[in-house]
Amino acid sequence: MKALTKNSNVLKWIDDVISMTKPADVMWIDGSEEQLKSLREEACESGELRPLNQEKYPGCYYHRTKPNDVARMEDRTFICSNEKENAGPTNNWKSPSEAYKLGTEILENSMANRTMYIIPYSMGPVGSPFSKIGFEITDSIYVVLNMNIMTRVGQKVLDVLEDSNDFVRGVHGKCNLDENKRYIFHFPEDNTIWSCNSAYGGNVLLGKKCFALRIASYQGLKENWMAEHMLILGIENPKGEVKYVTAAFPSACGKTNLAMLIPPEGYRAKGYKVWTVGDDISWLRIREDGRLWAINPEAGFFGVAPGTNKKSNFNALMSTMKDTIFTNVALNLDDNSVWWERLDNNPPENGLDWKGNPWNGKTSKEKGAHPNSRFTAPAKNCPSISPNWEAPEGVPISAMIFGGRRAKTAPLVYQSRSWKHGVFVGSTMASETTAAATGKVGVVRRDPMAMLPFCGYHMGDYFAHWLDMGKKASNPPKIFHVNWFRTNDKGEFLWPGYGENFRVIEWIIKRCENEVDANESPIGFLPKVDDINIEGLNMTKEKLNDLLSVDKDSWNADIEGIEEFFNKFGDRLPNELKEELNTLKNNLK
Ligand code: GTP
Ligand code: SPV
Ligand code: MN
After folding, report:
1. What whole-number distance in Å separates Cα of residue 149 and Cα of residue 377?
2. Which of 173, 96, 162 minimizes the C-alpha distance to 133?
């Protein structure tokens, strides 16, 4: 097939990848519906995709991955900077020469009887000054179809790139899906990503975590901007004014849910609305007004299916009703529809589980869907999508929110005293691990800014970059911390969460507008109990008070964990963070 560009940088690189992988055929993805349609048909014929009930779910397909390939593999993910020191203590490292050599051995001839697809894509609206261009070369139709939902692909991207050499070079080969030869290599200094032997989203949709976070975080360091694991939402008040906030929660800790939140009835009646700009990734820049402006570099949602239902996240569910790909959920063979845990109380009797085994959801004790099963849905399907979600210059950010899953310790919400203190709060975030990555679930670990698995360089330098951005922005966002996941002695959540989180967001916006006072505490500003609206909730002031309490003993125990974590960074830990730690220690005495 004829190349879709004359860009010699692109063509030279593609030739190199062809010589390595030796594909039987090469196809350029032009983004046309015609081409996508024939790829869907081919994938359905080979069994890679299964068409769902087209009356119920027009344009929707089903896909299953291998049982050993269902989540990001952090121990197989490497930052291959030239100097080991520059990957830092929180990343796996291999030297570029070793990684290219190993990658070449694995990818050599790996496409011999397959078609190679070349996907030109833009992260961010095509042609926006905030956007960046990448290519993904892959031997997977599933990847092509997912990338087409998650990013903007095709000829229009090449038209913007012209002859430039400024693009990210991504290579993905399924190879034999051999777990022992599975690697996700990032070469930040070469704008290059190589991924082999996986077919799971986070490892193979290279625009997402690999480019838009790991490579982009490094580009942001060099070019004075930020790439963050953050949702973006707009809150409209009854006067029609919209304030935007971002929030960084670790994987499977509630970003998609917060981004698509529906305010409680009382607020809706008054005219409050929430607008979704993005659910996973933000790229932030300082503009002339001294504020941070954010774009969502993605065009779709790769969201967690289990737990998504009409009540918990109506907007996400609606987003998946057409043109969506479902991965590793359960199938209902009676009407060829999908099901997952907590979708409704009516699991299929005549079903297949995520492994493809016959499954009766009414009697089986096994789960039907994998806990990390996902939907890939176009953002434009979302009923709450913001009219500004593709604004080329982004939206101005009033507040940034950090949060994680903490059964104890962290209160429902608090505000940092300053940008510097806010960076400390983000750098000391901790959260219980989830099924989004392989490994144990429910173990508390430090996950600074929700970027532990996604920072493409030394995390000490990353903290310094955050501090620096706050100095460069004359009007940076206010920084907050939330915890929706505090539990009682029986392990039950104390806070209702989901849509009710709007009550906390309301307080955050009021703080940004200087409309409410707060109580000073050792850890920062806490809400006055009367300032969080609990009207219509099954909640007493006493219970809310518990949720807002700061237990000195558990915070002092936490400090030990912070110190241990900070010690890893040696002299690359900014002094400002050491100062903040000392302040916290003194405050807790
Ligand atoms: P990634 O896509 O992995 O980055 O995850 P995410 O941060 O977008 O997580 P998501 O919103 O998909 O939520 C993951 C899980 O947390 C789901 O099972 C939700 O039902 C649950 N969850 C989300 N918000 C809340 C909340 O406010 N309270 C409680 N208890 N659970 C929540
Ligand atoms: C996450 O794990 O944070 C995700 C899903 O958003 S993945 O794309 O697999 O990384
Ligand atoms: Mn994520």
Report:
1. 7
2. 162
Place of tokens 């941070």: 292
Q: What is the pLDDT of residue 1?
A: 73
Dihedral over alpha carbons 425, 431, 437, 438 (to 10 degrees): 140
The residue with tokens 């929430």 is: 274
- Answer whether 251 contacts ligand 2 (Cβ < 6 A): yes
| CB of 175 closer than 8 Å to CB of 195 | no
Neighbours of 22 (CB within 10 A): 16
Closest CA to 394 of 293, 278, 523: 293
Q: 307: buried, middle or exposed (CB in 10 Å: 19+, 13-18, 0-12)? A: middle
DSSP-assigned beta bridge partners for residue 338: 331
Neighbours of 530 (CB within 10 A): 10
Place of tokens 């922005």: 473
Structure tokens at 158: 């090449």
In 3-state terms, the chain is what percent helix, strand and coil (to 5)?
Answer: 35, 25, 45
Of 579, 561, 279, the residue nearest 410 (C-alpha): 561
Cα–Cα dist 144/60, whole Å: 15
Q: Is 253 a catalytic residue?
A: yes
Q: Judge whether 132 and 122 are in contact, CB under 8 Å.
A: yes
Identity at 104, one-letter amino acid code:
T
What is each CA distance from 141 to 138, 295, 392, 402, in whole angstroms?
8, 28, 30, 36
Position 224 confidence tier, pLDDT thresholds 50, 70, 90: very high
User: pTM for the complete prediction?
Assistant: 0.98
Which of 72, 200, 231, 257 has most ligand 1 atoms within 8 Å of CB, for mutation?
A: 257
Ligand 2: nearest atom to the Cα of 304: 5
Rg over alpha carbons for the chain, rounded to the nearest Å, is 23
**Residue 99, amino acid:** A
Q: Which atom of ligand 2 is nearest to the CA of 202?
A: 9
In terms of DSSP bridges, do strands 351-352 and 358-359 run parallel, antiparallel, or are they unpaired?
antiparallel
Condensed to tens digits (0 to 9), the pLDDT of residues 272-303 reads 999 999 999 999 999 999 999 999 999 999 99
Q: How far is CA 540 from each of CA 220, 421, 466, 565, rounded to the nearest angstrom?
A: 45, 31, 38, 37
Gap between the Cα atoms of 75 and 69, Å rounded: 13
CA 558/CA 428 separation, integer angstroms: 9
Which residue, among 469, 486, 474, 457, has the nearest Cα to 422 in the 3D structure? 469
**3-state SS class at 101:** helix
CA dihedral for 329, 331, 336, 337, sign (positive or negative): negative
